[in-house]
Write a structure and sequence with these properties.
Layout lengths: L1 H22 L10 E15 L7 E15 L2 E12 L4 E3 L7 E15 L5 E16 L3 E17 L2 E16 L2 E17 L3
Antiparallel strand pairs: 1-2, 1-9, 2-3, 3-5, 4-5, 5-6, 6-7, 7-8, 8-9
Length: 194
């Protein structure tokens, strides 16, 4: 599953220059500078102590500020909160046993983007707190990272495609466990600079 997500992101990022060439003119220099807020919907895939899980719906709310340093670089920071459908992940850890769980997280991400006309391919590095809900419990904080692309469809609006990955050690009901959290989302951002 993770390989499929990484390949999808790579293809999307490689296609950006070709889409941008077809799209036309570059927005103004200040178009990527300012406050924004957005929502994302997509698929969450996570695992608990290496045991696989079914996918579930994930929702993310985020908001932050970006600053265009020059024609080739945008930097930014944002706060985010996401939650995955409670108890929809299912882990069969031992024969005859089953545990259903969900996850929620919040934190901060830092962005480095590389504008190409109306597109902004970017990478993110962040730090987030994640907690498990349902039959399993526990919480932890760790680094996370990802990549994506935004497409400016109007002065105030952008569509986006994003992949985020987090891997952490978490203390749960059965002691320490390894928890992996992966989100693949599409979303909409509103920019307040116009």
């Amino acid at each position: 599953m993770r390989r499929l997500l990484l390949v999808s992101c790579a293809i999307a990022l490689m296609a950006v220059p070709y889409m941008a060439q077809a799209q036309g003119s570059d927005p103004s220099f200040d178009a990527w500078t300012g406050w924004h807020a957005g929502i994302q919907l997509g698929v969450n895939d996570n695992s608990y102590n290496g045991f696989g899980s079914s996918n579930s719906l994930t929702t993310t709310l985020e908001g932050g500020y970006d600053y265009r340093i020059n024609w080739n670089l945008v930097i930014g920071g944002e706060l985010y909160s996401d939650w995955n459908s409670d108890t929809s992940h299912s882990v069969n850890s031992f024969p005859g046993s089953n545990a259903n769980f969900g996850s929620r997280s919040y934190g901060v991400d830092f962005l480095a983007g590389f504008p190409v006309n109306n597109f902004l391919p970017y990478v993110k590095v962040g730090y987030g707190h994640v907690s498990i809900t349902g039959d399993l419990s526990g919480s932890t904080s760790s680094a996370r990272y990802g990549a994506g692309v935004m497409w400016r469809i109007a002065p105030n609006s952008a569509l986006m495609f994003q992949y985020m990955y987090q891997n952490a050690s978490i203390r749960g009901p059965f002691g320490n466990a390894n928890f992996k959290n992966v989100n693949l989302t599409v979303g909409y951002n509103w920019f307040f600079n116009y």
